[in-house]
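Deliverable D5.2: sample structural annotation.
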Amino acid sequence: MKGFQFRQGTVYRKKEDGSRLLLIHHDPMNLESIVVPGDERHFDAKRPALISIDSLIALRKSGQYEEVGDLDAETLHRELQRLLAGGALTEKAAKLVAAVVRELPR
């Protein structure tokens, strides 16, 4: 899969109430990602949750959310740093998110 790159920092908006989810593909080998809930102003780095690929597919197919695009590299970097500093990730997830940060274009 050389040269293959996952989109990072995709934001989904819930149609019903405008709440948002930030998607981070931290562990693609285990088909698991992190979603960080938020509102129109910020994401809550203290409440990340793991999501399986099956749950992500169901979320996308549900019609309840719309994809609103990816965060720019600077904003994504800032949000990932907040996520790491938030203390809510397991040690394994934190190491994987730190690796994502290192791979971000600067």
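Annotation notes: The beta strands are 10-14, 20-27, 32-38, 49-52, 65-70. The CA atoms of residues 77 and 88 lie 17 Å apart.
The annotation will be released with the project's public dataset once the embargo ends.
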